[in-house]
Write a structure and sequence with these properties.
Pfam families: Zn_ribbon_21 (PF14255). This protein has 60 residues and is mostly beta strands. The protein has one domain. 0% of the residues lie in helices and 62% in strands.
């Protein structure tokens, strides 16, 4: 597992997330631990190193 810190696109708080670095590419939705809004998370690993990480708000 890999811990990554990022800024929530809704409340602008810095939060951390554990990402499974054994999966090369993944996209999923998780709620912000501060404001509870849904965030789309996309991560890409190469040789277990994080090479791309994106967070996007889910507009309703």
């Amino acid at each position: 597992m890999f811990e990554h810190f990022f800024t929530c696109p809704y409340c602008w708080e810095t939060i951390s997330m554990l990402i499974d670095d054994s999966v090369n590419e993944q996209t999923y939705i998780e709620d912000c631990e501060v404001c509870c809004n849904p965030i789309q998370i996309t991560s890409k690993f190469f040789n277990r190193e994080l090479v791309d990480f994106q967070v996007n708000s889910i507009e309703q």
